[in-house]
# Entry
Amino acid sequence: MQIIQIAKADFLQRVRAPSFMIMLILTAILSTLFVPPLDANYAVLTLGEHRLRYNSVGIGLMFAFTISVLLSLFAFYIVRNTVQRDRQTRVGQIIATTQTSTVTYLIGKWASNLTLLSANLALMTIMAPIMQLLRAEVLTINIVQLVLLIWLVGLPVMSLVAGVAVLFETIPFLRGGFGNIAYFFVWTFSLASLGLIGTDLGISIYDPFGIAYPWFAVYAQPNAPSIQALNLLGGSTRLMPVLDVYPISWSLPAIIGRLSWMAAGAGVAVLGVIPFDRFAKPQGRKLVNLWEKLFPKQSAASGAKAFEVSRLTPLATDRVRSRFLSVIIAELRLLIKGQPWWWLVGLGGIVILGLLEPRPELMVAVTIWPVLVWSAQGNREKTHDTAALIYTTPHPVVRQLPATYLAGVILTAVLMSGFMLQLTLSGAWLALTSVLSGVLLIPALALALGTISGTARLFEISFLIWWYIALNASGFPALHPMLTDSPATIPVYLAVTAALLMVATLGRLRMVVQ
Amino acid sequence: MELNIEAIGKQYKRGTWSLRDFTLTLEPGVVGLLGPNGAGKSTLMNIVATLLKPSEGRVLWNGSDDPNALRRDLGYLPQHFGVYPNLSAIEFLQYMAALKGISAKAAKTRIAELLHLVNLEDAARRPIGGYSGGMRQRVGIAQALLNDPKLLIVDEPTVGLDPAERVRFRNLIADLATDRIIILSTHIVSDVEATAHTIALINKGHLLSYNTPDALLATMQGRVWDLTVTRDDLPYFKEQYLVSHMNQRPEGIQLRIVHDEAPASHAQITHPTLEDAFLGYTA
Ligand SMILES: Nc1ncnc2c1ncn2[C@@H]1O[C@H](COP(=O)(O)OP(=O)(O)OP(=O)(O)O)[C@@H](O)[C@H]1O
Ligand SMILES: [Mg+2]
# Structure
C-alpha cells in the first residue's frame, strides 16, 4: 500500500539519522529519573503530600503522565520537519507529480511520525518494569496494567502530536520557526484547559491527554485522601507518605474514547489538504511573476552580448585582508535581512517600551520577539546548505564564528538598550551588569545549540521553556539574568556563557578543516 | 603559483576509498577533471578547497599546507550549494565579499561588474529564493570570482545553464585562465574540449592519465574504428565492443568502436575524439 511505502521510506530515513539514537538514549535516561529512589525528596507525580507506590500501576501512571504531559511537548519538535525535508530535498516535487493523492501523502507522514514516537513508547514500556525491579518497592509486575497505561494514554497523544506536526507543516506561516513557537503555546493552553474537565469519569473521554480517566480512578479509591491537588513533579523536604494504587479497570467507553483520539490524530493531519500546496514553487512566486511582467527580462540575444574579463577592475592586494569589523556588519545584516518590516517596527517598539516601562518581567517577556533571529545562529550554514561556500573562506572559526556571535550580542543589546539606559539613569548598576550578562548569554546559547544540533528548533524550544518558567516562577528571580540583581548569579551566568561559547567553537571546529 | 596534491586518499566512514593515492602538480592554466559519476571528482575538489579533510596525503598551495593561506586565494563553486533565499544576489555577494576580506568599497564595484559578467543585472535586486536553477548557478559563479582567485575550482559549473550561458561561461574560463590555476570538473566532454589545457582522467578514485588533450588523443590513435553493421548484427557488436557512438544510416547502423584491434575486417580506422578517450579509459 502506498501509505505504508511513504511511511516506511520516511521512517527509515529518520531512524538512520544519529538524532534517533540520541532521542532513545535521552528517553532511557529520563525514564530512570521519572522513578527516583525511594528516599528521594521529589516525585514525578504527587497527590497532595503523597507519592505513588512503585507498583506496576504507580509506575505506569507516572510514565503515562510524563508521556502525556511532557513528551507531548518535545515529540512535536522531534518529528517536526518531515514534509519540510521532502521540500528541501525536492523529493516532494517528485512525489507531487506521481499519482499519490495528497490525503495518502499526509497520512503516510502522520504514520511515519507516529511510528517514530512509538519507538519511544516501546522503550518506556521496557524501562518501566526494569525501573520497578530496580527500585524494588513492589516486586510483582503487572505487565497488563503497565502496557495499558502507557499505550492507552500515550499512543493517542502521540497520534495527535504527529497529526498536528503534519498540519503545521502544510500551513505556510506555521512551517518555519514561527510554528515552533506557536506549538509551545498550543501545548500550554491545551494543558491549562485540562483543568476545565470535570471530575466525572463519564466525560473524561473529552480529555485528549488521556490522563483524566486513570487519575479519577485513583481519586475514587477508598484510601485516596480527600480531594487534593495533583502535581507533576512535586517535592517535599520530608519523606513523602506513600499512596497505594490499585489496578485500573478501563471501561469500554474509555477505551473507545482513547481510540477516537487516536483516529483524530490522523484526522488532524488530513486537515492539511486544505492549506497544503503540494510542493508548488516556494514562496514569493506571485510576486516574482508580477515583477517579471512589470520588468520583462531582456531578450536572449542581448544576453549573449560580448564581455571581457579584462574589464574587471583588478582588486588591489591590500583590498583583500582580514577585516573583522566588516564581517560583523555582514553577519548583522544577514540577521536582519530576512525579517519583515513589522519585525523591525516591533524591535523599535521594544526599545521605547524599555525606556517608558522598565519593568524586568516585561523585558523578559519581550525577549520572545527575536527568538527566530537568534535561533538561526550557528545552524544557518547547515539549514541553507551554504557550508561549502562559507567554510572555504579564510578563518571560518576564528573570524566568522565570533563575528556571528557578536552580531547576536549587538542585536540583543539593541533590544535591551532602552531598558539598560533606564537602569543606567537610575544607577542600578548591579541590575545593569546582570542584564548585560544576559545580553551575552542568550546569543551564546543560540549559537551553541544551533551549532551542535544543526537546527533552529533546539534553541527555540529550550529558550521558550526557560522563558516560560522564568516568567512564572516568581519566587526564583535568579532563573533569569534580567530578573535578578543578586551579585552571586552574575559570575554564574558569565561562566555559562563562556562554556556555551566553548561548545560552539568545538562544534564548529569539527565541521571545518584546520 | 603552484598547487601540489600529494598522495591524497579519502575514505568515507570506513567504507571503500573514494580517492586513493592521488598525486598531481598543477601550474597556471585550466585542468579538466574528467570522469564518470562517482569517480571521485567532487571528493578531490572538496579536499583541495579545504572543505574536506583527506584521510591521507596533503595539499600544498605555494609550498604551504595552511588551509587559510589557500582559502585567501580560493574561488570555489561547489557541485551542490545553497544560498540564503531571502537575500538578493547583491546582498548575498556583499556577505560573501565580507567573509573573503574584501573592503566594502572594492566589493561594490566588483559585485556590479560580476553581475554584469554573469548576466544577472536585471534580477540582482530580487530575492535569490525566486531564481531559476541556472540563475542560482550564476550567482555561484559570481561569488567564486569575488576575490579574483588565484585558484579557481569549479565543480560541474555548466549544470543547468542554457546553451547561450554555457558558451558565455566557457569564454569566461578561457579569459580567466591566463594567470591562475583553474580546476574544472565535468562529465561533459565538450566543456573540457573547449577550455582545458590539460586533462586529468579519473575513475574509481584513481588518476588514470594526466595529459594535454592532444597527447591524450594521440594515445587513442589507431584504436578507434568506424564500421557499418546491419540491424541484426547490432546486439553482437554492442555486447562485444565498446561503442562510443551510433548513427542511423540507410545502409545500416554506423558504429564508432573503441578497441585495440579491428572489430571486423571492413572496419576503418578513424580520428579519435576526447569522447572516445573518456570511454576508452574509464569503461
Ligand atoms: N558524504 C559521503 N559519504 C559517503 N560516501 C560518499 C560521500 N560523498 C561521496 N561519496 C562516495 O565517494 C565516491 C566519489 O564521489 P564523488 O562525489 O567524489 O564523485 P564525482 O566524481 O563527483 O561524481 P559525479 O560526477 O556524480 O558528481 C562515490 O562512490 C560516492 O558514493
Ligand atoms: Mg561530483
Observations:
- Chain B has ten helices and 13 strands.
- The mean pLDDT of chain B is 90.
- The CA atoms of residues 138 and 255 of chain B lie 38 Å apart.
